[in-house]
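User: tokens in, sequence out, please.
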């Protein structure tokens, strides 16, 4: 009885923590589009680098880890179950995210995960090259396009790296480690090129004495911010999946199915399987 109560409390605590993450993700998304950050991003490269890092990495990571699908009524309140024969049993009232989760479990298609990562990297690099950053400095409305084109593929990437109930990543843990590391390194390399430049990498910003910050300082701050936020997001994913992979010899999907099966045995009514 005590163990069951503790399990329920733990589960409720995790759900509450996920809800907080999702809310924070939404707040950060809005903060990127309004002053003071939106205004500062048009004046300073480091503020634009912060805006980029939040939209490309922080917001998708927070939303994926927050798993707001059931709160948004995109997924059923009850998770899909696994029968004794290992077959997935779908409850009534499935939402679009539930159907997506079932389809991913039945047909993992790991190449789609690679496609999401590739799409995200292409978009992220395009938003860091001089023409697009200079355009953002002169045309603030473009930040809306930047936000959409970064958050959507970024969310697709993070759904391949972390569990976002009812969604689970298609890739085994070693491949998640490799994907997270490659994405992180590519963003770091692009940021490193900016910080290492002796001249102005972007020309849409005014670095006169009146602004109080030099070209080199602005670019080095930009690099540091992008490195820090990207590392904070991806390094835990790399080490968590690496540790879990080294600790468990079984397939992580088998672990997921076992947990769902245990939940069914403990808490589901006996007549549920009669449908």
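Assistant: Sequence out:
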């Amino acid at each position: 009885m005590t163990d069951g109560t503790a399990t329920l409390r733990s589960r409720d605590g995790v759900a509450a923590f996920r809800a907080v993450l999702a809310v924070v993700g939404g707040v950060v998304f809005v903060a990127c589009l309004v002053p003071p950050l939106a205004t500062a991003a048009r004046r300073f490269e480091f503020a634009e680098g912060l805006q980029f890092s939040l939209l490309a990495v922080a917001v998708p990571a927070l939303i994926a880890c927050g798993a707001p699908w059931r709160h948004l009524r995109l997924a059923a309140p009850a998770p899909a179950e696994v029968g004794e024969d290992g077959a997935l049993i779908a409850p009534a009232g499935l939402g679009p995210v539930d159907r997506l989760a079932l389809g991913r479990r039945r047909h993992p298609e790991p190449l789609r995960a690679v496609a999401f990562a590739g799409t995200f990297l292409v978009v992220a690099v395009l938003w860091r090259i001089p023409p697009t950053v200079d355009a953002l400095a002169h045309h603030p409305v473009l930040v809306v396009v930047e936000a959409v084109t970064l958050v959507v593929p970024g969310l697709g990437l993070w759904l391949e790296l972390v569990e976002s109930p009812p969604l689970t990543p298609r890739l085994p843990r070693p491949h998640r480690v490799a994907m997270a590391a490659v994405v992180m390194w590519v963003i770091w390399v692009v940021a490193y090129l900016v910080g290492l430049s002796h001249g102005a990498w972007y020309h849409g910003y005014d670095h006169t004495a009146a602004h109080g910050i030099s070209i080199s300082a602005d670019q080095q701050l930009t690099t540091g911010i992008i490195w820090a936020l990207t590392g904070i997001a991806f390094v835990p994913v790399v080490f968590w999946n690496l540790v879990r992979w080294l600790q468990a010899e079984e397939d992580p999907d088998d672990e997921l199915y076992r947990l769902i099966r245990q939940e069914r045995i403990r808490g589901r009514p006996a007549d549920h399987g009669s449908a």
